[in-house]
Design a protein that fits this description.
The chain is α+β, with helices and mostly antiparallel strands. It is built from 1 helix and 4 strands; from the N terminus they run ββββα. The chain starts with a strand and ends in a 6-residue tail after the last helix.
Length: 104
């Protein structure tokens, strides 16, 4: 039973003045996972970030990468459900045919 702590970006607010970023606040999600299941989760208070040193492209890249992995996972789930629906539909057609072409 492995316990692991995590901290992920949750929400970001970027303020602009005349088209230039002048303030950034970051809220993170922290918590604990036990065997891959989240058992505790909280949001941190907003933390001011250094506008000059803030690696927004890294954050966006990490977030996009995580989102794409989730999309691929969900595509697999959808494909599995579609296959399951097709099998159930075939069973239903077989049952209707066995009943002389009439639904029970």
């Amino acid at each position: 039973m492995a316990l692991t702590e995590f901290r992920h970006p949750y929400e970001i607010l970027i303020r602009f003045k005349d088209g230039v970023a002048c303030g950034i606040q970051l809220i993170s999600e922290t918590g604990v996972e036990k065997d891959g299941q989240v058992i505790q989760r909280t949001e941190t208070p907003a933390e001011a970030q250094d506008v000059e040193g803030f690696a927004l492209s890294d954050l966006i890249g990490e977030t996009a990468s995580t989102a794409l992995l989730e999309v691929e996972r969900l595509k697999t789930v959808i494909a599995s459900r579609e296959e399951e629906m097709e099998q159930l539909n075939e069973r239903l057609v077989g049952m209707i045919e066995a009943n002389g072409g009439e639904a029970a």
